[in-house]
Amino acid sequence: MTDQKQDPNLATIVHTSQGNYPVIVGRDVIDDLGLELQKTGQQGRAFIVADEVMFSNPVRRAQEALERGGYETHVLAMEIGESSKNIATLEVVYSWLADRRAERGDVVVAMGGGVIGDLVGFVAATWLRGVSVVQVPTSLTAMVDSSIGGKTGVNLPQGKNLLGAFHQPKLVVQDIVHLETLPPREMAAGWAEAVKHGLILDADLLDTFERLAPQMVALEGDSPVEAIRRSVAIKGDIVSADEFETGDRRVLLNYGHTIGHAIEAVSGYGQYLHGEAVAIGMMAAAGIASRLGMIDAELVERQLRLLESYNLPTKAENLDSAAIIDATKSDKKSRGGTIRWVLLEGPGQATTRRDVPEDVVIEALQDVLD
């Protein structure tokens, strides 16, 4: 395994029941993909499933890096979004692997945003009852959130990620260079997940995100790389402590997600990017915490200013509050229709509550609906 002291690009090593794996974060680290995979002991062929948006130079670079590491490679480029993260798309990937006789000893490489990571991770979890997967996230949202922790899944018409599995990667490689071609809206959506880590668990990181917002947004200098590494380390630590979300820690990562997922579902997974919906969900959650007397109005306002400084929406337009409330009740974290809300207690401090009255939720929701 990679030595943390020797590799300045190593953000964290995630410890799980399925094995430990490094998360590499830096500029131009994609060129080390094959060498890093070698270090894990992985053999066999490498089957890259890439977001077509990334084609062709970044994918070719990853392919060449794998071949330098001694891996025979095959590439499938797909155009995929949240609306096509479904069983039909799964079948396309399964058929491609079947045609090439992918075996248990081979590895599947997911290269793209969170949708590719989720779907290809689920393919790896289920192909021949499980093959190795490497995550190469190319969006900021996927880097700081979905590529770490082994959550995989696809959507059903009834809800998001209802079909899924925990399948930890062998390796995660995050090249900051990939972010330089992302549309501004995609980048903003990614900052929502990174900022969330500061809000719930790290007041110092929260301060950094506030103080250096212009540099972060512009990806200038080392500060964004270091902030992404820190955000990744927070996610890795939580996954190591609570791999299957059975305790009280990993669920904290769902701050803003209960309302966020509901907004995505009600708007048909097209109107809002995931991070945008989460930003609105965080404002609703702050409104709930404020009404319950857990935080003061100053922290609600501070969160609002912070999200706006990263060009994130803080209100949703043309959505029905009753439909959103209904959608929250099918959230995977709910039990018996009772939602486990993640709420702030202070800067860098979050907890969970199951006793939130529905009228408080409705009031807070009305505040974030235009």
What do you see in this structure?
The protein is α/β, with parallel strands linked by helices and 370 residues long. It has 14 helices and 11 strands. The longest helix has 19 residues. The protein is globular and about 60 Å long. The relative contact order is 0.11.
Features:
370 residues; alpha/beta; Rossmann fold; two-stranded antiparallel ribbon; 14 helices; 44% helix
In short:
The chain is α/β, with parallel strands linked by helices and 370 residues long.
Largest sheet: 7 strands, mixed
Rg on CA atoms, Å: 20 Å
Category from helices, strands and their pairing: alpha/beta
Strand content: 15-25%
Spell out the blueprint of helices and strands:
Blueprint: E1 10-14, E2 21-26, H1 33-39, E3 46-51, H2 57-68, E4 73-78, H3 87-99, E5 107-112, H4 114-126, E6 132-137, H5 140-146, E7 151-156, E8 159-166, E9 171-175, H6 184-201, H7 203-211, H8 213-218, H9 223-241, H10 257-266, H11 274-291, H12 297-309, H13 321-328, E10 341-346, E11 349-353, H14 358-367
Parallel strand pairs: 2-9, 3-4, 3-5, 5-6, 6-9
Antiparallel strand pairs: 1-2, 7-8, 10-11
Helix pairs in contact: 1-2, 4-5, 5-6, 6-7, 6-9, 6-11, 10-11, 10-13, 11-12, 11-14
